[in-house]
Amino acid sequence: MIQHFQYRSMYENKELPGWYISFFYGGVKHEGIYHKDGRIDCKPALDEKCAKQIHDLMLFHVYE
């Protein structure tokens, strides 16, 4: 389960896509970048289930 999900724009011009993300998953802090094409660069690497949850959160918070 993802906890404490946060995102912020990478650019001052908020119309440009690209976001810094951070959250806790399985008790481990993850930080990374969510790209405009849906790629997620994250340390440590994400499993498929977590990546899907991140996509869902971004759709809800950013694209709606």
Q: Care to give the gist of this entry?
A:
The protein is an alpha+beta fold and 64 residues long.
In words, what does this structure look like?
The protein is an alpha+beta fold. It is 25% helix and 41% strand. The protein has one helix at 48-63, and strands at 2-9, 19-25, 28-34, 40-43. It has a 4-stranded antiparallel β-sheet with strand order 1-2-3-4, with helices on one face. Strand 2 and strand 3 form a beta hairpin.
Q: What Rg do the Cα atoms give?
A: 11 Å
> What is the number of helical segments per DSSP (H or I, 4+ residues)?
1
N-C termini distance: 22 Å
User: Which sequence of strands runs across the widest sheet?
Assistant: 1-2-3-4
Attribute tags:
4 strands; 64 residues
List the helices and strands and how they pair.
Layout: E1 2-9, E2 19-25, E3 28-34, E4 40-43, H1 48-63
Antiparallel strand pairs: 1-2, 2-3, 3-4
